Amino acid sequence: MSSRTATRVPSSAADPEDVLFSENFRFGVVIAKLFATISEEFRYLEKNMTKPVTSQPTEVELQILRILWELGPSPVREIHKKLEAAKGTNYSTTVKMLSVMMEKGLVKRDEEVSPHIYRAASTREKTGKKMLSDLVEKVYAGSTMSLVLQALSSTKATREEREELRRLLDQMEAE
């Protein structure tokens, strides 16, 4: 078998070995270009894809929401003062957290005023209900009773809490 190179030009007699080599070479070039294009696309997607966004707040996000529920609509500086006192967070981290929370739909920003004012996107009650509903679904397979029994058995309820629970049960039975 003779040694072949990519620059060899087939003779006019069209040697079958030369034709086969030429076709295989062209096929290899096409495959290499295709692979390079696909690799480039994957690198682009990997670089530009964002992480899935969840609306569930993290612990720090909950802390910021508690600050907003306490203070009401506030500029970053006011939010940061409270967060820094509690966690020692620096200002740029507070700004970044608020930006992430906006993407998640947890806070809203009024850009009509300067400085911008942030507010919680939903009330403490709505947020609590959503988180509790998610907990019931994810941990207790949809059984609210299992959650209630777990909560009651894990800590000792005060007399006032038991009375409140009785009032709530009575109200539910009346409905």
Structural class by secondary-structure content: mainly alpha
Task: Find the count of extended strands (DSSP E, 2+ residues).
Answer: 3
Indicate the radius of gyration in whole angstroms: 32 Å
Q: Encode the helix/strand succession as letters.
A: HHEHHEEHHH
The CATH superfamily title of the largest domain: Winged helix-like DNA-binding domain superfamily/Winged helix DNA-binding domain
- Largest sheet strand order: 1-3-2
Nearest-integer average pLDDT: 84
Helix percentage? 55-70%
Name the overall outline: elongated
Which CATH class of the largest domain? Mainly Alpha
Number of domains: 3
Q: Work out the helix count.
A: 7
Major sheet, described briefly? 3 strands, antiparallel
Q: What's the architecture of the largest domain, going by CATH?
A: Orthogonal Bundle
Q: Look up the CATH topology of the largest domain.
A: Arc Repressor Mutant, subunit A
List keywords for this structure.
3 strands; 7 helices; Arc Repressor Mutant, subunit A; mainly alpha; about 180 residues
How would you sum up this structure, described in words?
This protein is mainly alpha-helical and 175 residues long. The chain has three domains: 15-49; 59-120, Arc Repressor Mutant, subunit A, CATH 1.10.10.10; 124-174, no CATH class. It is built from seven helices and three strands. A hairpin with a 6-residue loop joins strand 2 and strand 3 (117-120). It starts with 15 loop residues before the first helix and ends with a helix.
Condensed summary:
By secondary structure, the chain is mostly helical. The chain has helices at 16-48, 59-71, 76-87, 91-104, 124-140, 144-154, 159-174; strands spanning 74-75, 107-110, 117-120. The chain folds into three domains: 15-49; 59-120, Arc Repressor Mutant, subunit A; 124-174, no CATH class.
